[in-house]
Amino acid sequence: MSQNHGQWTSRFSYVLAATGAAVGLGNIWKFPYIMGENGGGAFVLVYLVCIALIGIPVMMAEVMIGKFGRQTPARSAVLMAKASGRSSAWRVTGWGGVAAGFLILSFYVVIAGWAVAYTWYGFSGRFENQGAEQIGLLFTELNAGPWALMGWSGFIVLGTVLVVGKGLQKGLEKAVNLMMPILFVLLAIMVGYAAATGNFSEAVQFMFAADFSKLSWNGVLIALGHSFFTLSLASGIMMMYGAYLPDNTSLVKTSVYIAIMDTLVALMAGLAIFPIVFANGLPAGAGPGLIFQSLPIAFGQMPLGQLFGGSFFLMVVVAAFTSSIALIESSVAWLVENRGLSRWQASASAGFAIWLASLLTVFSLTGAEWSVVSLWGDIRISFFDLLDYITANIMLPLGGLIIAVFASWAVSEEISRRTLDTTPALYRLWQLSLRFVAPVAIVAVFLNLIGVLNL
Ligand code: PFF
Ligand code: NA
Fold it and tell me: Which pLDDT tens digit goes with each residue over 124-162?
């Protein structure tokens, strides 16, 4: 594959592209609102532990598989299994990712569509001097009917298809190169502004004082699932990127960089949002609309708020866009490989399918009656919530579990040691985490949840 698609031109651009895939709505939109819904500090602590002990080692395993095979995910996994004398059934590590990536993207584009709308609102001055109530209304109006949502998300789908269809990395690399630093600076400005004008101490208290009585087992599962979601794990992506890994690059070090960058952006987003949430008496558990109902209040009051507000949401769009491209890539690569389509045909078909699937989320948001499904008992849940729950909290941790077992038990030590290419001590640590810590933790969380739910 490296002959067809090329390698990243340098270690730096590899890190940037992988960071671009990692940093996205998960950090800026999802992390703050699920933290808000799950009580703050204890959730953050569990999330950080999951990133360090499970997320980073699994990321290394995925990059290792891609680096070894230099093929699309399923094929790389098969090559590595075969080389270790194992069954080619381990290709399941590739398939699960394609399915998860597709389902995630179906709601991801709709939320990215919100950000496109808010970029427009910001630059056109819709936030100016608006209080919490009017800002809340703006969000309600956006979700009143399907057409606006379909249009805004259609934008993202179209853009993704165009970039992925061309199969280019050059353009993408440049865009990420430029936008990631701007996003970082804008976030820092927002944190500064929130610290100066908002209720910063309450926000810090909320985010970093761990009160475990506020955290349920479901909350623990959400933290675990989010650590996979935010690092783009178990979706084939990191295997894909590993296949492009430049030769002189340490996959261990770069994985740690990527995870640190991703975590920093998430924490900064929390520190930008919660001071404003608390200062305006908004509920921390407001749900998916949290960032859209809080930050615009600040933009509406700060000097140059029009410029800052528009630019901020533009950066969110860019961050979401670089992740969307990564998300669609697994479906596209699968179609090219297994259905013999050209890249253009593959990305257009995947894009159309995703746009259709996104309607489930669109109608969930507008509150269409049919968009709510009944599960067992009297649990009723919208398609949007269902998609989010099944992907992040079930498919990704399960995929991570399989990858951990594959990389640490099935792959021969000789091969993993050589491909990982690190010090003996770090290798042991990595192996220990994947052999025992990750599987035990993931299974324990699942079992506890099932026990608690009394299924
Ligand atoms: N990591 C992305 C985010 O935090 O927004 C979401 C994501 C991208 C998940 C790519 C999975 C993926 F393959
Ligand atoms: Na992320």
Answer: 999 999 999 999 999 999 999 999 999 999 999 999 999
Cα 98 to ligand 1 centre (Å): 13
Rounded CA separation 308/116 (Å): 15
Ligand 2 centre distance from Cα of residue 21 (Å): 7
Both tokens assigned to 225: 């699932």
Residue owning tokens 């499970």: 54
Ligand 1 mutation target, pool 232, 241, 267, most atoms within 8 A of CB? 232
Residues in contact with ligand 1 by the CB-under-6-Å rule are 21-22, 24-27, 101, 104, 229-230, 232, 235, 237, 323, 326-327
For residue 244, the 8-state DSSP code is: T
Nearest atom in ligand 1 to the alpha carbon of residue 262 is 4
Say how far apart CA 336 and CA 326 lie, in whole Å.
15
Domains of the chain with bracketed CATH: 11-450 (1.10.4160)
Phi, psi dihedrals of residue 381, rounded to the nearest 5°: -150, 145
CA–centroid distance, 35 to ligand 2, in Å, is 14
Do 109 and 365 meet the contact criterion of CB atoms below 8 Å apart? no
Type of residue found at 150: M
Q: Residue 413, exposed/middle/buried by CB under 10 A (0-12, 13-18, 19+)?
A: exposed
Task: Look up the ipTM and state it.
Answer: 0.99
End-to-end CA distance of the chain: 45
Which ligand number lies closest to the CA of residue 261?
A: 2
Q: What is the pLDDT of residues 25-68, one digit of tens each?
A: 999 999 999 999 999 999 999 999 999 999 999 999 999 999 99
